[in-house]
Amino acid sequence: MTIVFISDDAQALACGADAVAAAFEKAGCTVERVSSWGMFWLEPLVEIGGLGYGPVRVEDVEGILTRHAELVSASTPHPSSSATIEAWTLERQSPTVKQVQGDDLCVGSLEHHPFIARQQRHSFARAGKTRPLSLVDYTATGGWTGLDRARSMAPADVVAEVTASGLRGRGGAGFPAGIKWKTVLEAKGTTKYIVCNADEGDSATFADRMMMEGDPFHLLEGMAIAAHAVGAGEGYVYVRSEYPHAIAKLNAAIALAAEKLAPFRVEVRVGAGAYVCGEETSLLNSIEGKRAEVRAKPPLPALEGLFGCPTVVNNVLTLAAIPHIMAEGGASRYAELGMGRSKGTMPIQLAGNIKHGGLFETAFGITLNELIHDIGGGTASGRPVKAVQVGGPLGAYIHPDQFDLPFDYEAYSVADALIGHGGITVFDDSADMGAMARFAFEFCAAESCGKCTPCRIGSTRGVELIDRILGSGKTAPDSVEALPQMHNARKAGRSRDEEFQLLEDLCETMQFGSLCALGGFTPYPVRSALKHWPEDFGQAGSAQ
Amino acid sequence: MDGDQLHDIIAGHQGRKGALLPMLHAIQHEFGCIDAKAEAEVAKALNLSRAEVHGVVSFYHDFTPAPDPRPMIELCRAEACKARGVEAIAPAAEAAAGERVNLKTVYCLGLCATGPNARVGDTLHSRLDEAALLSLVQSA
Prior knowledge:
The complex is a heterodimer of chains A (about 550) and B (about 140).
Chain A: E1 3-7, H1 10-14, H2 17-26, E2 30-34, E3 46-48, E4 51-53, H3 61-75, H4 85-93, H5 95-99, E5 106-109, H6 114-117, H7 135-140, H8 145-151, H9 155-165, H10 177-186, E6 193-198, H11 207-214, H12 216-230, E7 234-239, H13 244-261, E8 265-270, H14 280-287, E9 311-315, H15 316-326, H16 330-336, E10 338-339, E11 342-343, E12 345-352, E13 358-363, H17 368-375, E14 385-390, E15 397-398, H18 409-414, E16 423-428, H19 433-447, H20 453-469, H21 496-513, H22 517-521, H23 523-532
Parallel strand pairs in A: 1-2, 6-7, 6-9, 7-8, 12-16
Antiparallel strand pairs in A: 1-3, 3-4, 4-5, 10-11, 12-13, 14-15, 14-16
Chain B: H1 3-13, H2 20-31, H3 36-46, H4 50-59, E1 72-76, H5 79-83, H6 86-97, E2 102-106, E3 118-120, E4 123-125, H7 130-139
Parallel strand pairs in B: 1-2
Antiparallel strand pairs in B: 1-3, 3-4
């Protein structure tokens, strides 16, 4: 009986994996549904005996089985039909599988595929290889060793190791995780919480979703270690409602692992379509059942967080890095990776108009040139790259001239850009950067929580302003503005220079006057688009 | 809106910490909306004012004050899908949807390497071109 591995990740399902799986079952194969390798251009990706085939359509199934029989008879013994994870791992790593030359149907050995072999997968070590809800697979691949070791240690020692690893928050702000944990550990109070921020709303990001769907026990292990380290009894995973598959997988995983996690208890809370809930204080308000308005800081959530209690709020990827760090010697191995103050690995997400889009976990320091051209293969459309946006809708647009920038929190900050959650959207030369700048304001207006004025009103004024600059907005005062009692309203239209000056003022007000990153970072995509592509705003020379 | 059913939903969540959002999700799921009557009942059960509950209902995109019987297709129009050409195929889909289908814009379904993407219920669709999106709209 041939064992066929097909992912049940939402991305694979969206590309038709269920129908392909059914076709293989009909052809007499045993189909195991595993997590995704993160090579999304190949989905639905099918793995047989360590060899990958993709993207597979239902009508390809017969041809693949024939082709596979030819390939293995030529080079390897017939793939084992043994149903253990150990046997599968051996098969994937076998040198004979590595030698198989791919063709238009077969991509060769997945384990040795350049996209995989170039990565340093720690958080995503199991991606593509294990059944997401199998405790047997999880334990056999080193699961729970970090938790067992952490629980044999004093909480303060666990916090010290996390601090020593240099791990920084992967949600975007890059705050050292160990320092946050230390604050919660030392905070007074008997009730403390662990909150996992899984409100992954940035366009171009899907690593949280992949982790929750593909390796949910790994995330829960990280949360349980955090709970032990700070003395928390309960935890919440706040997942956006756009991720129904992740919610289902997490709920199932929590039920399966409840005994192992005890006395720590975890509950999934589902968002309701508000992007701003990715901001930690609005997320806490949302769990509490309030409007998800941002809270002013201080007080820090570490001291007064969920229900007023000391709370660790960490991103999925931060918590998912923890089990590896807490394994024997893991902290020092982690700290050896990366560059400067950006330690360890970052699961980078290659998205948008890119040929080889997917998840690429690697140590900090990699350049955009490597990511976009060497690894990503350039644009999917085959046209030249015009711009990339790093860090989601609030991240700066980066010009190809800057593609030697190393992936590092500080280097990006110096270049007026941000790493954010590690999402990279590639645009080809058909992109209209004026329209993208307008969209940045439009998105901010749609998702603003409304608490602070620069974001709530500034975003709408920004849309109007860009419309005027692009020549489609109104320039004359409207009937209200024209009234004599509207003393401060402008009675005459502005010149183009005045419009650009106003845009600059607006960006400055939003950047420094907003309560959180939504209003505060919206100027990044706007200013960078204007700076690098003034021609898309009808400006010949430098606009600023 | 069936009163007994509403009471059952409210009672099922009442003891939880931060019960309001799970409660509202359950009501929206069951009745397709959260109307004034439901807001009042929820407020009473959680010892909140109706204004507080209404404030929460109106804040979140997922909650609606009145049911929309039309079939719904959520089309992602965020950056990664824009980079893959969603804006070029959206007008035809909007025209085909007309008033019959609720073609709703969402920002990101997390499938950003293979867009344009859409969601119908819990079923996801990726690598959409104009024909595929049109057929989704027509069969909705």
